[in-house]
Amino acid sequence: MPTKAPRALVVPFSLIAMFLGCADGMEPAAPIEPAVSGEQVFADNCAVCHALPLMAYQIPQIKGRPPGFVYDALTTGAMRRVGARLGEPSRRAVAEYFTGVAFGSKASERDHRISPSCIGDRGRFDWNDRAHPNWGGDERNHRNVSGSEGYARDDLAKLAVQWVIAFPEATQLRSAPTAAGGALFVGSHNGSVYALDQETGCTRWHFKAGAEVRSAVALDFDGLDANGQGMVRAVFADRAAKAYALNAETGELLWKQSVDPHRSAAVTGSVTVYDGRYFVPVSSNEDVGPLDKTYPCCTHAGAVVALDAETGEIVWRTSTITETPEVTGHTNAGTEIRGPSGASVWNTPTISERHGLLFVGSGNNHSRPATAMSDSILAMDLETGRVAWSYQAQSGDAWNAACLWSVSDQVGCPTPEGPDIDFGATTMLVEIDGREALVAGAKSGVLRAFDAEKGDILWKRRISQGGPESGIRYGMATRDDVLYVPSTDSRDDPTSGEGARPGLHAIPFDGGTPIWSVDRVSLCPEPALCRDEIGAPPLAMEEMLFAGASDGILYALDRSSGDVLWQIETAREFTTLTGTTTTGGSIYGTVGPVFANGRLFVSSGYGQAEIAGNALIAIAPE
What we know:
The protein is mainly beta.
């Protein structure tokens, strides 16, 4: 049954006193003396994580990039905790070592141009067009195309690539495109954010954030400028837990707000815009900290932060953990264990206007003790942030990256090790028998429907085997009383002997028997030739469903049967709008396909443990 939250959970912000590499919540030590060489700085500060097989894949991906990419990560990005204890010469030296490129050389020059600048009418915005203005298409996160606006079956044979762009310094595309005003809005790996013309791909404007932008760019159509005139805002957050509001027509910065001062804090979900407020989900990079056995794990807690749309000021902040972290013991290496921690909010908030509630799923704890709202669905009051109800699907789930099978020294892994089966995927709000229901999928492979107002479970169904890197991981779609649920099962379970069930499943709103399922046999007649997880949220149209796989294939499936109607390979070479070549990769993570004004936009490339790539592809009928 749902439980009421402790009263101490919601704290007025005025009372809060308060990566890639191993991040933490400790204050940095004083800057060290400049190192003799970048190799030595790497050995002393970076190798503890980056020399591990788990993360070593990143080194060849970074080679050849401008050293400013690594320098940014050390100063304002995900590795800022490590960078804070390095002197300026050491940051520059290790950036050159990582990339193999010297500052001041021709190869070190940073060019953020990805397409020609728009000229004339191509740079004008028509805000009557609101095709897909946020991550889920609307605040209910349905990820569908209404009515008959999408493609018909006859259009599929005519689909062809119209244009392709490659982002600067990128090997993965983790910011889902959004579409409005005739433009496509998208963030990128090095923090660059763009407004592109949907038809031609030309650049309307560019903005550089301080860290990678994994969130989608949400559009707020109700803004006002300094003169009281209407103004559309573009809103997003970066991996250093900074939220931004830009003038959506010019890219001019209106305000910037830190939503969490912790040095490991990040935003990996997307901002939800609703009724004069921006709701920001807060996660962290701290789960990789224990890869270093001297790291005292952990102190960060997940949260949702509500910002005033006009000023960016924090209205309320609700943490997923009520307790203050403290030292709870020591590892076998003698390192302090701190906790509780974790319960990150990885996903994008869903809104119920009817009940005045916001919904998110929370992650596992990163250290013990485990807490009451980890691995949970949380319903928060939109006005105050008070938790109206919560449901915990798995208690006692404490896990971090030191528990991974590929890590030989697992001294930082919590004891006992939790199953890591949290709620990573964004929820959806649907109508079942005249009442609002919240649908939530977990990495456990279990899909649940809740009464949105009260939190009672309406039904639950196991979709897949599930596991730490499996189950319902990133998001779903819905249309016409059917849920379309992907599974990222990647390997058989050696403990239970249960086989992996990657694929896509059509589930009726009553939670009954699947209408259809497509599995590895359906999608991969020759499994040795492809990787078959449906790795990103699908997109539903009237007749068909578009879904991308981790091997880079984009499928169009018959919505009534699941039969494959059309497919295109994206993990291949393309010529970009600048005349250079680029290669796509996995379609994975939160970046599912997006449709606007007759065009399909597909993000291909996921360098984090999947197939690296760098191609944003526009597809339309010829």
